[in-house]
Specification:
Elements (H helix, E strand, L loop, with lengths): L14 E4 L1 E4 L2 E9 L11 H23 L4 H14 L2 H12 L4 H16 L3 H19 L14 E5 L4 H6 L5 E6 L7 H8 L4 E3 L4 H4 L5 E5 L4 E4 L3 H6 L20 E2 L5 E8 L13 E8 L1 H4 L8 H15 L3 E5 L10 H6 L9 H5 L3 H17 L7 E5 L5 H20 L8 E7 L8 H5 L4 E4 L1 H8 L7 H6 L5 H16 L3 E4 L7 H9 L4 E4 L4 H9 L3 H12 L13 H16 L1
Helix pairs in contact: 1-2, 1-3, 1-5, 2-5, 3-4, 4-5, 11-14, 14-15, 20-22, 20-23, 22-23
The structure holds phosphoenolpyruvate (PEP) and magnesium ion.
Length: 586
Amino acid sequence: MPLTFASPFIREPQIIIEGTSLNQGIAQGYAYIYGPQYVDNPCQSVEKKIRIFLDAIDKSILFCESSSSNQSSENQDLILVQKSLLQDLAWQQRVIKKIENGLSIGQALDATLDDFESIFRKDAFWHARFQEIRGISQLVRQYLEEKSLSFDVNKPIILCAKTISPVEMMLFESIKLLAVVVQDDSSLSHGMIIARSRGIPVINGIRELKKLILNDDELLIDGDLGRIYVRPHRTTIANYDITTKASSFESLEPAQNKTLFSRDGTPVHLLINVNMMEDLAFLNHPSIEGVGLYRTEFPFMAHENWPDVEQQTNFYLNILNKAKEKTVIFRTFDVGGDKTFQSLHKSFRNTKKDWKHTRFTLQRPSLVRLQLRAMIRARVSCDYPNLPLHIMFPMISETQELSFLKVLLQKELNREKKLGNKVPQTLSVGAMIEVPSLVFQLNQFLDLVDFISIGSNDLFHFFYAIDRTDAVMSKRYDLLSKAFIQMLKTIIEKANAKNINVSLCGEMASLPLEAMALLGIGLRYFSINPSAIQTIENMVQSLDIWSIQECMTDCLSDNPFAYKAAHLSIRERVMELAQIQQTQLS
Ligand code: PEP
Ligand code: MG
């Protein structure tokens, strides 16, 4: 990958930048600024500019080809989408026309992006497609510099970007990344979720990132504090223990399963969220009981055509074989937001805003039936055919929607039987609680499910009416606000009262203070980002659950006398308790 590392600037003294930690850990390496501004030469002729632009496209395509060969098949598909977008003549011609009209290459790329944004803004699917076009524009900018050097894959890289989409994140899959630093993305954007799952420090909220950090600057990242040292002093470096944390358990043989207990002996169940097949390696960790959320849409997002039953069956079969006897909860396709399906864009141009998974599939039941058929076939033909098939539906807003999806499932089971095919011995059907309207239908809704999983990423944003990818608005409200926690407590209590297994699979479960508060309101099943396994395990093992229960009861009480520290927020009280428990341990 040709990247420019030579910084023309004289090295200045250390500066310290404070951001927000999205993933802990310490790393030391060199900044690679993704998406630098290309400075146009005003004296270049139009022909020369067009030549440079087309040359940058060729180099970007070559990069896509060379980096796709050592990737997983899912990533390969995503990279191939980037490649086909780069080859798209309509996009190229738009840029060239603007150059011919007198714009510089950078301006022409920006103006083309503006055109697409105004076209795509009208609906959510297309808006997300716009993110991919923004991605290729960034890639082309990388190659506009004529004097680009070869990328040294062994050089320890800290990826710095204004914003990064899930597909762009995957472009760096085979590059040795030590940390990720971004300016604008919120913690719940899917680009950040993928960055965190690499098990490296991730920091966001760095204002004016490109002014403060230059390509090839030496950086020391303190992911625990959300702090970045640019050109760190030798003494600063000496104060840190810079050891690379193992980010995968791939090399470990599956260890004997061990239930995780809190300090006072309460069992706590940990599962993982999986986006990519490679994440399954984390199932080897002894306290991980299974996959609590398999985001099945990720591997198929980039497919040109909707994946057929055979393709899907093989894919699910492979996962079930890899997971062996551990539970895998397959979530049916969750389309929308920053997750786009190429095949859907092509087929259904008039998709409506906010037409997310269920709203989509309810109108295209045949597509959900194909996926259910594939899951049924994968379960009965895998190496563990007698284990239950767990299916989870996302984005349900009304009880009737789930009833409808269950009818589709029943139809598929009947169809398989009629064909003389086997069906799973046990089916476990669950749903995600991600839309607040469901909280007011829980009594009826819980009668329809075997389990529920709280999708706090979406639930939080719909609850506070904010966009989950907007870093500024996302920070305005606290996951540990009284109103939100009270709502989660209602869900957990109602599910427990009906003996319905309840877990939480949003990123909130992977944050130690948040997870502690959740334990305090009765949650015992957590589906977490694999990068958080160690942190959550440590927290659970050092916690007396009775103490957090007492604390949360007090925090949520409406009686002013019961509230021991009325001036403190829930976050401050949980933090205080965490510090006390920590001191008792040491
Ligand atoms: C959620 O919304 O909390 C969730 C886990 O789903 P996703 O992040 O894939 O939208
Ligand atoms: Mg969701």
